[in-house]
Each structure stands twice: as C-alpha cells, then as structure tokens.
C-alpha cells in the first residue's frame, strides 16, 4: 500500500502561481511512476503531468504544457507540481497518483494509488 497526501492548493488570481506537493508513505517511493490529474465539476478526470521513477522523464497534458512543471525528490518521498500563469480553466480538484508498472501513463485507470485531492481555484 502507498498512502498519498496532497497539499498546496488554494485560491489564486489568474496569472498567479501555486506549488502542489504530494507526500508518499508506505512503500519505496522511487519504485513508482507518479502522475498529477485534475477533475473539474461535471468533467472527466484529466491527465496533467507525469514523472518517471528516477525523475528523468516528464510528460504534460497539452493544456498545461509550458506553464506547469512536475518534479520529485525521492529522498523526501515527495512529488511536486509547480503551476505558473494559472488560468480560470485550471480550476479543479488536483490528485496525485502512483503507478507501480513501467512507464508514465495518461489514463487514470493505469494508476494504483490515489490521494484525496487538493482544490485549486483560479479567479479571473
């Protein structure tokens, strides 16, 4: 079992920045590919960003590419999502997820463990 706890969400004006954190516990963090997803009311859960076990590979969804940066610190068992130039359409509940199998995947069904989520609200 892997437990994931997100933090860092909040209310920010358009153009602002937030940094989300996801702290993992339970099993060896570096064995897992990690992803960030988001879900807005009435919409499907959407891939935001993913990072490979070592941190050497990073991947982004089209809506956030160039604005968000995913990173991880395996010594601290934590994955981060730096979000810059936020837009109202970024408003959603943000989840981190862990995947034991190889490769970062964009489909949320491929992930084994999920956090409870942290709310991000961007005002115009």
The major pleated sheet works out as: 7 strands, mixed
Q: DSSP helix count? A: 0
| Mean residue pLDDT | 97
Structural class: mainly beta
How are the elements arranged and paired?
Elements: E1 3-7, E2 10-13, E3 18-25, E4 33-39, E5 46-51, E6 58-60, E7 68-73, E8 78-83, E9 92-99, E10 113-114, E11 118-123
Parallel strand pairs: 2-11
Antiparallel strand pairs: 1-3, 3-8, 4-5, 4-9, 5-6, 7-8, 9-10, 9-11
Structure characterization notes:
The protein has strands spanning 3-7, 10-13, 18-25, 33-39, 46-51, 58-60, 68-73, 78-83, 92-99, 113-114, 118-123. With 124 residues, the protein is an all-beta fold. Strands 2, 4, 5, 6, 9, 10 and 11 form a seven-stranded mixed sheet that branches. The model has no long low-confidence stretch (mean pLDDT 97).
